[in-house]
User: Fold histidine kinase from Chryseobacterium populi.
Amino acid sequence: MKYKFLNFKLRKIVHYSLILCVLLIQVIIAIFFYNEFVNGKKLKFIKNQLEESRALGGLTDNSRKDFVDAQNYLQKYMISEDDKDLALYFQSLRKLKDNFDKISRYENINPRLKNNIESHRKDAFKTARFKTLIDSVYRYSLNPPAKIQDKEYEPEKFKNNFDNLNIQTHTFSDTIKKKGLMGRLKDAISGKVNVQKESTVITLTNNKTADLSNAKAEMNKAIKSMDKHYATEVKKFQIYAAQNQQENIKFYNSFSKLLIYGNGLIGVYENAIEAFQSELEKEYNKQSSINNQIRTYLVLGLMILMFIVSILIMYFTRVAFIYERKLNAANDEIKKNLNFKNRILGMLSHELRSPLKIINIFIDKINRTTKDDTIKDYLKSIKFTNSTLLIQSNQILEYTKNQDADKKLVNTVFNLKDEISSIVTAITPYIETRKNKFVVTDGIPVGVVVNTDNIKINQLFMNILGNANKFTENGQIDLAMTTEMIGDNKISLAVIINDTGIGISESDVGKIFEPYYQGMISDEIDNLGAGLGLSLCKEIVELFNGEISVSSKLYKGTQVSFRINLNISTNDGATH
Assistant:
């Protein structure tokens, strides 16, 4: 075979392959849009959560800063005991608490973050408890312990018996220059002892005459009494200082506990948010990787399918070119055959129509010369058969030579009732040759003159009645005609033709008006014809803007009904 790829089975496989590729391309496009819409939506959701987690990370950073500020303000307050530092301390803690509240609100709407925070809580660190602690410590700070400078300790004065003594003190320094702290430290490290020394001399002058024998004993007694008194006072001061220190420790411990609790909360939130953010980043990277992989595979599959489709289209293009070339060659051959057919038909038209006309001339001469009625009846039948053959020849010639030409009516003025009567008179002998009874019901009014194509009307009646007679024998053919006015200048001719012949099968009724269609062929039917009769009848009826229909049952007869619209002539005298 010259073109093996034109094999039908191969073309069928290629055709289905092309359809499959197109379907796969549509599936790939659908998956692509699904990936971009659904997976893209997931990716966007994860990205939004990731951005929110970063915002939460910013809150923890701010919380850490507020915590450091609170710690610094507390240290300043412990040194200066300034209420402004204490107020700034509580202000920083409230900022810290606001940050915790924001994180808690997001925690309530995000179960995943909530689970992370719960997993990192080693103790019952809760924002509500932190707020309670702030309020409690704030109320406690409103009643701080007394400051030392606000309440100075005053030791009791020593009651002595030195009323008769006048006490004077004098301090003396040597000539060595006094050094500062660093200088004294340097001398101490190097072992030098040349430092400035100071001496204090206390002079007691008795205003009364002293008893020298008792002076020493009285001095010793006074000194012992002073030592005992001031030892007691120092012990009292130590107890007072210890009590004051305990109150301060208790006071500042409450602040320290609050900072420790806040630091714990910050640690919980920092670790949970970092873990949450890390999970989201991993999930985002994973989802993004999956989306990119799907895109890559889809684009690769699409490229492969498009390549296959291109090859298949090239195949079909090649096949189309080959078939186009073959079709052109076949068209050229058809044109040659049509030209040859037209030549043959022209020859048949010349060679066949002329003898038929001559036969009609001789029939008319014989009919005029003979007086035998039987012979005249035979001559009428022969003439009708010859005229029918001439009409059929003209129909075939007209149909084959003018298939593409516009059909039109050639109007003449004639009396409708007279024209139909002449057609009935001419065809009656032909119907009687098959021993059929011909019943005519003529409902056409007398004197109706129309301006239309009488030849087409003749062809219409001859074809339908001829077909009825052809397929009916020893039966009956009924012809019923009525008219109806449709306006002032038009009349409608309705014709119904019934026969009791062999009928038409239901499968053939729908095809009866197709050219060259003959339906069921029986050996009992002679002079079958070319199958153009009803096709030409339909064309003629359509030229009259009418309609035609056929109803039939096999072996029960056929009914053909048609309606044509005719122009009424305004010139009654000009009749054909």
Observations:
- Residues 521-531 have pLDDT under 50 and may be disordered.
